């Protein structure tokens, strides 16, 4: 299996999560990721307190192609604060936070339904 080197274009379902990373597109990656309609990229976030509007810029860059953002908040659910929620809403994106496992499963379902979805997923052990 190939190692993920930073960006893979295309829309990919997640094949597996856990052990500190993700498998997708016949590759594996240790660490967090952002998945958008354009592709999957590295996300240098290790815990929810590091999620900022700047860290979510790839989502905002593709706002015209995204209706729904799922933030995988790590092993536990975290509240998405208005400072993140409102700018995304203004860009036309509804955001929902959930534990990363549930977020990855929800993302896969929405991708399979061909929905306009993105995910920002914090890796879990």
TrEMBL record:
<dbReference type="InterPro" id="IPR036748">
    <property type="entry name" value="MTH938-like_sf"/>
</dbReference>
<dbReference type="InterPro" id="IPR007523">
    <property type="entry name" value="NDUFAF3/AAMDC"/>
</dbReference>
<protein>
    <recommendedName>
        <fullName>Mth938-like domain-containing protein</fullName>
    </recommendedName>
</protein>
<dbReference type="Pfam" id="PF04430">
    <property type="entry name" value="DUF498"/>
</dbReference>
């Amino acid at each position: 299996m190939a190692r993920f080197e930073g960006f893979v274009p295309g829309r990919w379902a997640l094949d597996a999560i856990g052990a500190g990373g993700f498998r997708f597109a016949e590759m594996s990656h240790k660490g967090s990721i952002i998945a958008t309609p354009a592709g999957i990229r590295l996300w240098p976030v290790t815990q929810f307190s590091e999620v900022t509007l700047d860290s979510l810029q790839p989502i905002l860059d593709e706002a015209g192609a995204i209706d729904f953002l799922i933030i995988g908040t790590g092993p536990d659910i975290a509240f998405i604060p208005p400072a993140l929620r409102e700018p995304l809403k203004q860009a036309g994106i509804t955001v929902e936070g959930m534990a990363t496992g549930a977020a990855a499963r929800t993302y896969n379902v929405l991708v399979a339904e061909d929905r306009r979805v993105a995910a920002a997923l914090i890796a879990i052990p």
